[in-house]
Write a structure and sequence with these properties.
- Strand 4, helix 2 and strand 5 form a beta-alpha-beta unit.
- Strands 1, 4, 5, 6, 8, 9, 10, 11 and 12 form a nine-stranded mixed beta sheet that branches.
- This protein is an alpha/beta fold.
- The mean pLDDT is 92.
- The chain contains six helices and 28 strands.
């Protein structure tokens, strides 16, 4: 079985982290999101993954090539203009003409049983199946309406505005039959959820909903990028455990220098970081090669790679990063 991994977006809501890398190359618990997605797919029986690229494509290529296991089964599809979720799939359609395939977003953190979803999809006879979750209060995710048989009858109000059926959230995974490709126009931007699904539903195609009951996390904004990682640490969850989880922190195994008098709690520390005497790091994300000097305080913040926090500096709810335009380090609020 093959997979399409969507990785071409600009990542506007994750700026400034996406000034120097594509969004899927941003690390979560010290591993790039794109590598997490590919690891999950290959662990679950996927033979080949096609990854579409647009914004800073070399950052994704480098992240993938730095990994060892099975990353040679990755094909890159570079877009000269941003084609959207459907247009990007159409450009790579030659890989998906002969069998059922899966398509996933690269920026959602979740684990689910691909085999069970695939079995549900095949038994339903659907052209497409979406992975959905029950909505939470005031969440920003696209609403999908389903009937009593788990058949999708509306998406984003595009088919039946005001539909009063059960509402679910789409969380970034589809299973498709190759026939879906005939609904996507050639060579132009288009979106699966906003355009292709409504077209198929109006024509009477069967589009099904498969409910995900486990944890899942969207990390598409700076606030959620910090909140998801530190929240998992605070809860003591190990759903996404990797090497480096230590107590209530996630520490890279690569040569951190953390002074014994420093207080580090509910934080993610990248490789080759230095954390000086009497400094305090709370609920924060430090990327690689960060230097936090004596007495500094970093709370609910992100420190970009290769950045220094001065002795006694206090950072709260912010990002400190190197600004290419000014040529120096700068701080902005989350």
């Amino acid at each position: 079985m093959k997979a399409m991994v969507l990785a071409a977006g600009r990542g506007e809501r994750l700026k400034p982290l996406t000034l120097t890398r594509a969004k899927p190359a941003v690390p979560v618990f010290n591993k790039p999101m794109i590598v997490r997605a590919l690891d999950f797919l290959f662990r679950n029986g996927i033979d080949e993954a096609v990854v579409n690229l647009y914004h800073l494509p070399s950052s994704i290529e480098d992240a993938v090539r730095n990994e060892e296991s099975r990353m040679h089964n990755v094909v890159f599809s570079v877009e000269e203009k941003l084609l959207g979720t459907a247009g990007g799939l159409k450009k790579a359609e030659s890989h998906f003409l002969n069998e059922t395939f899966i398509m996933i977003n690269s920026d959602t953190l979740l684990e689910f049983d691909i085999d069970r979803m695939l079995d549900f999809h095949r038994k339903s006879g659907a052209i497409a199946t979406m992975l959905l979750a029950k909505p939470e209060n005031n969440d920003p995710f696209g609403k999908v309406s389903i009937d009593e048989a788990n058949r999708i009858i509306d998406i984003l109000g595009m088919v039946s505005p005001g539909c009063s059926a059960k509402q679910m959230n789409f969380i970034g995974v589809h299973i498709f039959e190759p026939e879906i490709l005939s609904y996507i126009p050639d060579g132009m931007p288009s979106e699966i959820n906003a355009s292709i699904y409504p077209k198929m539903i109006r024509k009477g195609e069967t589009v099904m909903a498969y409910e995900h009951r486990g944890p899942w996390y969207d990390i598409g904004t700076l606030e959620r990028y910090v909140g998801v990682q530190t929240g998992i640490l605070k809860e003591g969850r190990r759903d996404f455990q990797e090497k480096g989880f230590s107590g209530n922190n996630c520490l890279s195994p690569h040569n951190e220098q953390i002074d014994s008098s420093a207080n580090v709690i509910y934080s993610v520390i990248g490789k080759n970081c230095f954390i000086g005497k009497n400094s305090k790091i709370t609920g924060s994300i430090l990327l690689d090669n960060v230097e936090v000097n004596e007495g500094a305080v970093v709370e609910n913040s992100i420190i970009e790679k290769n950045v220094k926090v001065a002795a006694g500096e206090v950072l709260h709810n912010c990002v400190k990063y190197f600004d290419p335009e000014s040529g120096g380090e700068t701080v902005s609020k989350i």
